[in-house]
Design brief:
Elements lengths: L1 E2 L2 H5 L5 E6 L2 E13 L2 E8 L8 E5 L5 E3 L3 H18 L2
Antiparallel strand pairs: 1-3, 2-3, 3-4, 4-5, 5-6
């Protein structure tokens, strides 16, 4: 796992991401980005939600995001983040 800033580097203010969905647009704040096994993920928060509520999205080359679709992928990413936090920040 490594920390990256690919998505934030493409954003005008480095934080605000507008996600276009079938129900309209939602504005998200990019909190953190990581790359796990060559796949890019972003921890994001809806701008209208309270502090502490964040979601993890897969990020594609053109900056589009999607939900993580499988439990195994979710577990792999969370294991890598957990290992990183306990190795470098304990």
């Amino acid at each position: 796992m490594k920390e990256v800033t690919h998505l934030r580097d493409t954003l005008e203010d480095g934080l605000s991401y507008v996600n276009s969905k079938s129900k309209g647009q939602e504005k998200l704040k990019v909190l953190h980005e990581v790359e796990v096994n060559g796949v890019h993920y972003a921890l994001m928060q809806h701008t209208h939600q309270r502090v502490g509520e964040a979601y993890l999205y897969k990020v594609f080359d053109q900056g589009q995001i999607s939900d993580i679709e499988t439990v195994s992928e979710w577990e792999n990413v969370m294991d890598a983040i957990h290992y990183h936090l306990h190795t470098y920040y304990d």
